[in-house]
């Protein structure tokens, strides 16, 4: 058996790596999610301000047995490396994931980082348990957080949900935040990073800057992704009070994602969450698709808003950490 490092620059090698990674997701999840092959390759091969990604494969002859995807955070959480393990079903319980994890841990130690974090995507929606959680426990990881994976079939009739909130106007944009809103949008993104429930995770909120926003936007464009943002502006003060973002890729038009929704602390309690989500949904939904979102089970207000839109839980993802 041979260990192969993958950096995304060799498209054929990357395709083999990706087939294992996404093949396992397809196998494990009723509603598989994740970047398409080219989006993932661009992420791995490119240079980005916030993250560096690399891959490890365990290969026997021409057969790929399993892979690990490593995310090295460069902004916030710079002590942590996220590792996603995927093993081809017929090679399981033969120590493949353990071997890949050992190689990853050795690298993490060599680079002076302290925490290995892993997300188990395919937990049962109620218990959160799966092969991945059994593996994580067996390899000394501690459970730190959970998120409910929820889906809704589109299109849905949003008319009944679209309620303007007195004193606020909506603004919408696509791939780039307009210059006039950029500074305030940076504040809201940082607020989101501070306020989103992260359970017991080792989590250092990201201090967003205009440069980081532009870098993230450029990466999404390079990946071929599209993003729809709706924000609410407090008319009297000109303050950007709330925003929501949804997006996807033409590679998988049947799969859309609900990303952040955030209401500035001083503007909560007015129904701004649904007030930005409903029109954003109206803008993005053009045909049949499934929209995905994730929320901490304790984030009751957000889950209530999602339930109003018709979202239902399909899996529980859990986040694990091992301190080296
Ligand atoms: C989780 C996963 C990566 C494990 O891969 P693997 O190569 O079978 O794992 P290993 O053979 O190294 O298992 C090591 C130990 O983990 C535990 N373990 C692994 N799978 C298990 C299962 N299905 N049930 C119970 N315990 C399990 C056992 O203690 C095992 O040791 P043992 O076989 O000597 O009893 C694999 O099942 C998989 O790809 N699952 C889907 C994707 C996923 O959940 N990834 C994890 C997210 S990071």
Fold and architecture overview:
The chain is an alpha+beta fold and 324 residues long. The chain has two domains: 2-113, 3-Layer(aba) Sandwich (Aminopeptidase); 153-312, Gcn5-related N-acetyltransferase (GNAT) (Aminopeptidase), CATH 3.40.630. It is 32% helix and 34% strand. It is built from eight helices and twelve strands. Strands 1-2-3-4-5-12-6-11-10-9-8-7 form a twelve-stranded mixed beta sheet, with helices on both faces. 33% of the residues are buried. It binds coenzyme A (COA).
Throw out a few tags for this protein.
8 helices; Aminopeptidase; alpha+beta; 2 domains; binds coenzyme A
- Count of alpha/pi helices: 8
CATH architecture of the largest domain: 3-Layer(aba) Sandwich
Q: Could you say which overall geometry the principal axes of the C-alpha atoms support? A: globular
Helix content: 25-40%
| Ligands, ions, cofactors | coenzyme A
Q: Main sheet, how many strands, which sense, barrel?
A: 12 strands, mixed
Low-pLDDT residue intervals, each spanning 5 or more residues: none
Please indicate the count of domains: 2
CATH class of the largest domain: Alpha Beta
Work out the number of β strands: 12
Q: What is the first-to-last residue Cα distance?
A: 26 Å
Structural class: alpha+beta
Order of helices and strands: EHHEEEHEHEEHHEEEHEHE
Report the radius of gyration as a whole number of Å.
20 Å
Strands side by side in the biggest sheet: 1-2-3-4-5-12-6-11-10-9-8-7
What do we call the CATH homologous superfamily of the largest domain?
Gcn5-related N-acetyltransferase (GNAT)
CATH topology of the largest domain: Aminopeptidase
């Amino acid at each position: 058996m041979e260990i192969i490092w993958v950096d995304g620059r060799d498209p054929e090698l990357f395709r083999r790596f990706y087939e294992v990674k996404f093949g396992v997701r397809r196998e494990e999840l009723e509603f598989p999610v994740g970047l398409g092959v080219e989006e993932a390759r661009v992420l791995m091969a490119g240079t980005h301000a916030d993250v560096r990604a690399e891959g490890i494969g365990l290969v026997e002859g021409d057969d790929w047995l399993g892979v690990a995807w490593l995310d090295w955070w460069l902004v916030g959480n710079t002590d942590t490396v996220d590792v996603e393990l995927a093993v081809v079903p017929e090679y399981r319980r033969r120590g493949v994931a353990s071997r890949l994890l050992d190689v990853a841990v050795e690298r993490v130690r060599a680079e002076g980082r302290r925490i290995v974090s892993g997300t188990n995507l395919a937990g049962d929606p109620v218990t959160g348990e799966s092969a991945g959680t059994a593996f994580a426990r067996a390899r000394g990881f501690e459970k730190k957080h959970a998120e409910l994976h929820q889906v809704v079939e589109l299109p849905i009739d949003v008319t009944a949900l679209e309620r303007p909130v007195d004193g606020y106007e909506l603004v919408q944009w696509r791939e780039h935040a307009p210059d006039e809103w950029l500074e305030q949008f940076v504040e809201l993104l940082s607020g989101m990073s501070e306020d989103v429930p992260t359970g017991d995770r080792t989590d250092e909120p990201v201090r967003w800057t205009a440069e980081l926003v532009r870098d993230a936007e450029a990466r999404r464009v390079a990946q071929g992704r599209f993003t729809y943002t709706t924000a609410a502006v407090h008319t009297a003060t000109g303050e950007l009070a709330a925003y929501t973002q949804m997006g996807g890729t033409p590679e998988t038009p049947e799969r859309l994602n609900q990303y952040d929704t955030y209401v500035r602390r001083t503007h909560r309690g007015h129904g701004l969450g649904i007030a930005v989500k409903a029109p954003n949904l109206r803008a993005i939904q053009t045909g049949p698709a499934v929209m995905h979102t994730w929320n901490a089970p304790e984030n009751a207000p957000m889950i209530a808003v999602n339930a109003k839109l018709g979202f239902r839980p399909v899996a529980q993802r859990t986040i694990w950490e091992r301190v080296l």
